[in-house]
Amino acid sequence: MAEQDWMSEVRAMVGREYGRVYAWDEVNAPMIRQWCEMMGVDNPLYTDAAYAATTEHGAIVSPPAMLQAWCLEGLHPNNYPPGSTKENPYEVLRLLESHGFKSVVAVNSDLSFERYVKVGERLYYTTRLDAVGEEKTTALGTGYFVTLVMSFFSDKPTGDEKVGELLFRVFKFRPANVQAAAEAPKAEAVQKIKRPKPGVSDDTRFFWEGAAAGKLLIQRCKCCGTLRHPPGPVCTKCHSFDWDTVEATGAGSIHSFVVMHYPEVPPFDHPNPVGLIELDEGVRLVAGLVGVKRNEIMIGQRVQVEFQSFDDGELTLPLFRPVAP
Amino acid sequence: MTNQTLSGRAAIVGLGATEFSKNSGRTELRLAMEATLSALADAGIDPSEVEGFSSYTMDKVPEYEVARLLGCKNVKFFSQIPHGGGAACAPVMHAAMAVATGVAKVVVVYRAMNERSWYRFGTGTYGFGDTPIFENVNYGWYMPHGLHTPAAWVGMFAQRYMHTYGATSEDFGRVAVGVRDFAATNPAAFFYGKPITLADHQASRWIAEPLHLLDCCQESDGAVAMVITSAERARDLRQKPVIIKAGAQGISDGQQSMTSFYREDITGLPEMGVVAKELYAQSGLGPDDFQTAVIYDHFTPFVLPQLEEFGFAKRGEAKDFIRAGHHARGGKLPINPHGGQLGEAYIHGMNGVAEAVRQVRGTAANQVADVENVLVTAGTGVPTSGLILGTA
Asked: Per the database record, which ranges form the Thiolase C-terminal domain (chain B) (predicted)?
């Protein structure tokens, strides 16, 4: 079954990297001592400077398992040190929440280490949204496994050095005993992603203004009459800078096409068929295909332009629909 | 001296590379330095002797920083080549021109990237804006329709090529199967020990029809560097000289970057035709003079028209060349014996130049017998480049 449209927004976030979150304090002996007391760790390597001096480390080091603790926010939520990113690495969870997957359970927290961290080092981490799984139903309910990977670095003038990594996975789900109807998503809570806007220059403005007015305009050399697309400031045949435009009939045929499947980038629907259209006037342009069945698109198929407005009229595009030969 | 051409004037004398991976775990600058120092050590040339650099405009490691870290004091030549993988062969060509003209005696070329772990080219989301600079205006014809990945741009050419010449998705698949077979026996390859079958290719999911997943190279992290100096000096260095017999760049009619859709015929790669003609003219060689070739394979479909542009097959008949297995292990022109970008790694084509160096030296993982000349091509669908490397 096809995923719902809003999931393509979630999918598009996968792979996203989030900026640095710094540690409030340098790695220091008092915090190590307190952590060891709390955790019941009595290895003198972490607390006894005289003993640590006799080891290969030469001085007190931080317990590896403490890695995440150095970069925690502290008592007050979301209170990170200056210079830390304002981005929210958990934004994907909020998005899932807005679609009714309100419950969460942590399922993995796997720490790995490159080396021991020494007193005096300043750490930070960056986060990558590593994966969002397919929809799964467990005893808890239906939802998605979301995996984040935090990479921890030591901040050094000579070049930052990776010291460890934390793989953190949660199951973000709609509890099995909750009615989906009660969880109607708030559409306005999620900002709508718009289609990319074209860059428009003095050489091409006529095309986009024409499209907005429902006209497919082609640039024409005033000197030799050559039609050209994409438009440019000068004729490729006679190098005249004088040009005007003609309105195309909008009839043409498919010269080539692709059907976009992956990556599913919002706000596009996938599969997304896109054609290279040869207009009857003789120039080609790229445009989306509408009213086509994926397996029935054919090179040579006759098509006719129609205009569609997107994003509350901010963008009008010529699209092409098959017509009888 | 009456030799006014580039052919035979310079040689690749040092080769260095990092491992290829999905996450190098270190900076691009560090990758560049590891590969460069390794290439200089391989050549037996002291870093202080480097007088020139060439790389890609897309490389984010500046040559001045490489120069600073190497301790260079006398750098007299530096260039960067645009258009992504279309650059792949051109840094070596530029280095050879600098050496041949005496502008610089020793030139380092490099490509270093964390194109997998730090950023990716295939996400379909780019920083294109709507200010009227040319790039934004140009991509404005495609992005609003969602035609926004390299695979999709290649797919537009491939669909027409299939329609015109009767090539099939299976023909593209045979390219992938051939290079993955080589990768399977190249310990440096991403897909070492992981060959695929044509059935695997056909069953792999769609990326942008007509391209399946296995028509597309994986994105990767890594670096490759080489050292170029005069053919004369190369004779006295520790490695077998790899002579630069020809180098060329190409732009042809109706050229765009990935979107030359407006040419009368979009089934060929005329910019590669420009490169082919120039390479053959410079070197005096022809299609029958190569024992192996490194043909740019970020996506399988463009391998076919390249074979045609270089005269290995007639127009529209590359599919027959592929169906006969001439490109595969043991074929008459084994293509991408390192596994290609589809199988070894995507280091923007520079790893393909490295393979040509190893084939000429006789040190490749999948060494082809009696190699005298190797053709190398760069990125397709963009302004491009090519090289002929060979024995002295």
From this structure: 257-382
Verdict on whether the full-model pTM lies above 0.80? no
Residue A153 tokens, joined? 């670095």
Q: Is A321 on the interface with B (CB under 8 A)?
A: no
DSSP secondary structure code for residue A289 in this structure? B
Estimate to the nearest angstrom the gap between the alpha carbon of A124 and the chain centroid. Answer: 23
Q: What is the DSSP string of B379-391?
A: -SSSSEEEEEEE-
Residue B43 and residue B24: Cα distance in Å, rounded? 25
The whole-angstrom distance between residue A5's C-alpha and the CA centroid of its chain comes to: 15
Q: What is the DSSP string of B290-355?
A: -SEEE---SBGGGHHHHHHHTTSS-TT-HHHHHHTTTTSTTSSS-B-TT-HHHHT--STTHHHHHH
Looking at beta carbons, which residues of chain B come within 8 Å of A294? 209
Q: Tell me which chain B residues have a C-beta less than 8 angstroms from the C-beta of A285.
A: 141
Q: Indicate the number of domains in chain B.
A: 1
Nearest CA in chain B to A284: B262
Helices (H), A40-147: 49-52, 91-98
Q: How does pLDDT run across A89-101, given as a tens digit for each residue?
A: 888 998 898 888 8
Q: What is the DSSP pairing of strand B107-114 with strand B52-56?
A: parallel
Cis, bond preceding B241 (omega within 30 deg of 0): no
User: pLDDT tens across A288-318, in order?
Assistant: 999 999 889 999 999 999 999 999 999 999 9
For residue A267, whether the previous peptide bond is cis, meaning omega lies within 30 degrees of 0, is yes
Residues of A in contact with B145 (CB under 8 A): 274, 286-288, 317
**B163 located within any domain:** no
CATH number of domain containing B326: 3.40.47.10
Shortest CA gap A216–chain B (Å): 14
